[in-house]
Amino acid sequence: MSGRVTGPVLILGATSDMARAVARGFAAKGCAIQLAARDPAALERDRADLETRYGVAVSLHRFDALEVEGHAGFVAALPELPQVAISAIGLMGEQSENAADMTRAAHVMRANFEGPATILGALANAMEARGAGTLVGISSVAGERGRASNYVYGSAKAGFTAYLSGLRNRLAGRGVHVVTVLPGFVATKMTEGLDLPARLVAQPEEVAQAILAAVERGQEVIYVRRIWRLIMAIIRAIPETIFKKTSI
Amino acid sequence: MTALAGWGRFRPVETRVARIRSEADVAAALAAGGPLIARGNGRAYGDSAVSPGATLDMTGMDRMLSFDAETGVLEAEAGVLLADIIETFLPRGWFPAVTPGTRFVTLGGAIAADVHGKNHHLDGSFGAFVDWVDVMDAEGRVTRAVPNTELFGWTVGGMGLTGVILRAGLRLKPVETGWICQDLRATQTLDATIDMMEATLRAPYSVAWLDCVTTGPMMGRGLVMLGRHACVNDLPPSQRSRPYHVPRKPTVRLPVDLPAMALNGLTRQAFNALYYWNGRRKPGERLVDWQSYFYPLDAVLDWNRGYGRAGFVQFQCALPQHTAREGMHALLAAIAKSGEASVLSVLKRFGPQEGRFSFPMAGYTLALDFPVNDRSLALMETLDRITLDHGGRFYLAKDARMPRAVLEAADDRVTAFREMRAATGAGARFVSVQSERLGL
Fold first, then answer.
1. Which residues pair with residue B133 across a beta bridge?
2. Does A4 map to a domain?
3. Which chain B residue has its CA at the smallest distance from A21's CA?
4. Residue A206 forms part of a structural domain
5. B298-317: per-residue pLDDT in tens?
6. Looking at CB atoms within 10 Å, which of A2, A52, B241, B326 has the fewest?
7. Least confidently predicted of A23-27, A172-176, B372-376
8. Can you say how many angstroms the Cα of residue B155 is from the centroid of all Cα atoms in its chain?
């Protein structure tokens, strides 16, 4: 599916910097916006912003990615099944803590894989029944290869990327398109305080524009800054015997 | 820690940057202790928005909260850019009532510096169109300050030193089109430039560019640019159905810092001469789109790199009406004598304003920019003295190097400002490198 986006756009995990930018990007196109997060009260100002700037309808929804039992009910309760649903759910955590504390590790895995995958699964089923829709999963380049510096987060993202790939395969020819977004570094709360090379860091607005373009053009897997495609190709190609001794 | 400077890129300072997205983030930054200052889009030229402690990057707190199409009042968070306000509301028939020479400033920054525009002589400064402002004080309390209160008076033009500006209500002005009817007039001397500005006080917008390279009797010749918002009927018939549509201006970036040589004496002289003759060739009235008229420099997104690594400094003073003519002669003579031509020298008539700490006063203001070097810094000390001799004052949003004694000699409001800071507890918490340098 590709073409102009008109219908409602659902944004899951709507309080993040990336989600805010994505919401503005779609609202600027005149789309109604459904914002979903654990604490919808925190989204009131974002609703005001989208309504004031773009004059679109905005609804707020309580949503907890980790309450899997509630997902079907959440989808059923939406005012309208969205044309586009975007998962911006994610939690990096501290790798040192994730490595030491398995409760934390499990939490990070659930927040980055189980939660986003199951909610998109529920939406996929509804969209498949309708015969139209686009699902966008914001995954990560960290899922392309496990590294000592963030393998807990990375492995969950790897699972999510594989899930999106499978979902795309299943829904091809059924009117439902799936976009996998591997943004690389983005200047957000998540990366604040990290010392990152500026050339590799995208602004949230860049990610939003890339997603908008991918949805309209029906692209499958996108990196936001092109250089990441090259970087990840190299990182994937390094033999494991060598890779294990590196600290990337 | 990050090395941060103002737009002039002069003397970066190590500071801890905290990215702010909400009022709660500001409260958390305050609770963490230590000195801090809010920073908008970093367009103040000097060290106004860099703190020796924490610098609060307010650009992530940029939500528009409501707009009243009856009154034109926009309620928004402090980090909203004027550029966003124009993009959102010009197509609906509204424009900022006062705008500085760049649209890449935040609402909070515009209030803190109480910026002025080409219409100050009639409409006053930015603060005249602010209905209220929410300020978080040193204790983390939020007060909605309204005009004619102490807090409002000190906050508008207070350089962020009364507390953190969180939100404000801004009155926009209705316009019929996105175009300006510009009336360009070339003058032969400084006196002729000032006479022309005095004779055209009824023009809604008025500003003059001065040639401050040429010496002798032609010194201070310039181009007076008058303007008013065009009505639909001023547009060619073909454009009247889309009055707010203007051609997209391409923006460019400077990929690298130019060597300091690029804007050396010779090129600056050539630029001044060319600019003047180009203006002289096509005087008179014409339609100009809003971007070209208000924000010619915004077309080069990072033009501050044109001055090289060392950066540049701005000098902007205001002289009271009764000494302005004599003072401007003295300032231009000192510049001409030094050989340090300013690339852009802008002269503007100010109308009356009695702000508690705002910059404008009835009279004239002159803005200059110089690449940083020993000669230009020495020249600015001379300009400081001439300004003091003529009863003038200085614009803190431009300042990066003024000694404390000069500010104290220029502005007898400083004592009261310090007392207010001490009494409210703001002095201990809201601190910029500039406020430390000037002892505010």
1. B145, B168
2. no
3. B60
4. yes
5. 877 777 777 777 788 899 99
6. B241
7. B372-376
8. 16
The total number of structural domains that make up chain A: 1
Residues of the domain holding A107: 9-243
CB contact under 8 A, A52 and B77: no
A53 in reach of chain B (CB within 8 A): yes
Q: What is the ipTM of this complex?
A: 0.90
Q: Does the beta carbon of A45 lie under 8 angstroms from any beta carbon of chain B?
A: yes
Does B77 lie at the interface with A, CB-CB under 8 angstroms?
A: yes
Alpha-carbon gap, residue B133 to B142, rounded angstroms: 10
Which residues of chain B neighbour A53 with C-beta distances below 8 Å? Answer: 64, 84, 88
pLDDT tens for residues B351-405? 999 889 999 999 999 999 888 899 999 999 999 999 999 999 999 999 999 999 9
Closest CB to A49 among B19, B60, B63: B63
Q: What pLDDT is recorded for position A188?
A: 82
pLDDT of residue B271: 64
Cβ-defined contact of A53 to B66 (cutoff 8 Å): no
**Residues B19, A53: C-beta atoms closer than 8 Å:** no
Q: Which of B25, B65, B73, B85 to mutate to test the interface with A (most CBs of A within 10 A)?
A: B65
Which distant-in-sequence residues (6+ apart) come within 8 Å of B358 by Cβ? Answer: B114, B125, B127, B156, B157
Domains and CATH numbers, chain B: 179-241+249-402 (3.30.70.2520)
pTM of the model: 0.93
Nearest beta carbon to residue B65 from set A17, A45, A189: A45
Average pLDDT over residues B284-292: 91
Q: Encoding tokens for residue A67?
A: 């309450």
Rounded distance between C-alpha atoms, residue B133 and residue B111, angstroms: 9
CB pair distance less than 8 Å for B63 and A192: no
